[in-house]
Amino acid sequence: MSGAALVAELAERARRLGFDAFGVTRADARPDLPDKLGTALAAGWHAGMAWMAETRDRRADPRALWPEARSAIVLGLSYAPERSPLDDLERRSQGLISAYARNRDYHDLIKGRLKELAGLITRTGADAKVFVDTAPVMEKPLAEAAGLGWQGKHSVLISRDFGSWLFLGVILTTAELPPDAPHAERCGSCRRCLDICPTDAFPAPFRLDARRCLAYYSVEHEGPIPLAFRAPMGNRIFGCDDCLAVCPWNRFAGTARELRFHARVDNDLPPLADLLELDEPEFRARFAGSPVKRLGHARFLRNVLIATGNSGDAGLLSATERHLAAPDPMVRGAAIWAVRRLAPARGRELALALAPKERDMEVAAEWTAEVADA
Ligand code: B12
Ligand code: SF4
Ligand code: SF4
């Protein structure tokens, strides 16, 4: 079968599998990536994601990951939300989960479909491997090379048709396939994403410093959230969509066709009061099959308590105080912060009673640490 015939068959099958975007590029299409990833790592923009540095050579070059790879097929699946996440930032007693995580985990959903496409390739005698998110493959620049869109100034891939809301997946193959033309950058003089970022996480256009990004702190970061980033988290309890949501190219994006990416009713702005009550088995049951489950119960509570501290809702005080006795020091620390923000006088009273008994030095310090202004 010719490369062109195989691409036509793959594109048609991808469409039937529900993929919204499809493109092909050469595996060596981005010789600029080792330098660019090197710049990011040297500057420390990967924050605590040490795995990014550990896999740098393979990550920046698919041919270093798999020397026999000749082509990359890049797929996109829309998860465009029903309404702009920016509209939900003022619902301060409700937790805001990022648009990508309100229902089924995209990894599960995309990987199976990629494997089905890979089966069409291996049938021709070529080899193929599938990747979505977790492997050392730089999916955004490969998607740009394959013509799916361009990396915007917020660094995410934007599509003309689906805006900022595309999940990406990649198939590397030993087959020589005719490549698509790369997509040109279309941001022009716009800088809305850079200006809206609540934590000033962009050192320059197209470059993101994860050490200042709320998506990083709420999803990837392991320990307590640094003080300076707690107030800016607002009601976000998993991820952040601000820089994506503000992009004018989203006006062409209709709501995702895939119903399993539509917000599940109970994950659409759940009341913080309910989330504060979830014990570990309830947390696991409630978020089974969703990306939120990977956070684990303690980090989930950490985020919910910070959102509670930002809510200004004194009705949440007693539910918050219950977490002052949590076994995990990270949760106790977040609970202290929330109590002090919600009711400073009660915070002082509790500090006198509880701080001297606290064995963890960092948690004890939370009682005296400066609490950011509301
Ligand atoms: C690590 C990671 C993160 C980190 C770091 C983000 C980042 N910018 O890389 C954190 C946790 C912050 C994160 C957040 C999010 N992520 Co993320 N993440 C990844 C992951 C696993 C690796 C990305 C990577 O390689 N980063 C390394 C950096 C160095 O790469 P880069 O951003 O392309 O870097 C460019 C710049 O540094 C620039 N550069 C460097 N020097 C120079 C010099 C000049 C002159 C210029 C012009 C440029 C330049 O060039 C680099 C190469 O293009 C990918 C999956 C994958 N395997 O690719 C998903 C992925 C990028 N994430 C995704 C999503 C959905 C998100 C969030 C929207 C989730 C959310 N709502 O909370 C946010 C978006 C935040 C944002 N503005 O980026 C999607 C994006 C889909 C898309 N359409 O692009 C991906 C592709 C997962 C997937 N399979 O769908 N993510
Ligand atoms: S995800 Fe949020 S915090 Fe991170 S760069 Fe975008 S707007 Fe800033
Ligand atoms: S908001 Fe403007 S600058 Fe940012 S990605 Fe969209 S078009 Fe580009």
- Our estimate of the beta-strand percent is 5-15%
Beta strand count = 8
Identify the quaternary structure here: single chain
Query: In the CATH classification, which architecture of the largest domain applies?
Result: 3-Layer(aba) Sandwich
Major beta sheet summary: 4 strands, antiparallel
| Topology order in helix (H) and strand (E) letters | HEHHHHEEHEHEEEHHHEHHHHHHHH
Percent of residues in helices comes to 40-55%
CATH class of the largest domain: Alpha Beta
- Provide the domain count: 2
- Distinct small molecules bound, one entry per kind: cobalamin, iron/sulfur cluster
Assign the structural class, choosing from mainly alpha, mainly beta, alpha/beta, alpha+beta, or little secondary structure: alpha+beta
Rounded to the nearest angstrom, the radius of gyration is 22 Å
The residue-averaged pLDDT reads: 96
| Total DSSP helices | 18
Shape: elongated
Instruction: State the CATH topology of the largest domain.
Output: NADH Oxidase
The residue ranges in which pLDDT falls below 50 over 5 or more consecutive positions are none
How far is the N terminus from the C terminus?
64 Å
Q: For the largest beta sheet, what order do the strands appear in spatially?
A: 1-2-7-4
Q: Main traits of this protein?
A:
40% helix; two-stranded parallel sheet; alpha+beta; binds cobalamin; NADH Oxidase; binds iron/sulfur cluster; four-stranded antiparallel sheet; elongated; 9% strand; 8 strands; 374 residues
